[in-house]
Amino acid sequence: PHLLNLSFGGWHGPELCAALHLEGVAVSSGSACSAGTPDPSPVVTRVHGLARARSAVRISLGETTSAQDVSYAISAFSRVFADLIQCLSQIGFLQRNLRHDLHLVDM
C-alpha cells in the first residue's frame, strides 16, 4: 500500500535511479524481490510491456517517511529531470526522441 511505480517514457529506469541516489533519494528500477539484478519488474513487464518496465522507477514509503521527505524527493526528481533535459538537449536527443512525451512544470 505504500509503493508507487512511475514510468518515464524514453528514460532508462536504472539511470534515473542512479541520478536520484546522487541527490540522496533511494528508489529502485525493479521489483523488491529482484533487487540487485538489472531486470525490470516482471509484473510491470507483464501488465504494461517491456519498454514501460525499463523506464520505471519504484518508490517505497515507510511509516517514518515524513511530508518533508516527500517534498525533498519531488524536488530531487525535478532537479534530475531538469539536469538530464539540459544535457540531452545539448546533443539534440530531446528534439529527436522526447519532443511531445515530456512536459515539466517549473517547481
Proportion of β residues?
5-15%
Query: In angstroms, what separates the terminal alpha carbons?
Result: 27 Å
Q: If you compute it from the alpha carbons, what radius of gyration comes out, rounded to the nearest whole angstrom?
A: 14 Å
What is the share of helical residues?
A: 40-55%
Biggest beta-sheet profile? 2 strands, antiparallel
Structural class, by secondary structure, is mainly alpha
Helical region count? Answer: 5
Helices and strands, in N-to-C order?
Answer: EHHHEHH
Q: Determine the mean pLDDT.
A: 81
Which strand order spans the largest sheet, edge to edge or round the barrel?
1-2
Shape: flat
User: Uncertain regions: pLDDT < 50 for 5+ in a row?
Assistant: none
Can you give a write-up of this model?
With 107 residues, the protein is mainly alpha-helical. The protein has five helices and two strands, in the order E-H-H-H-E-H-H. The protein has a two-stranded antiparallel sheet with strand order 1-2. The radius of gyration is 14 Å and the shape is flat. The mean pLDDT is 81.
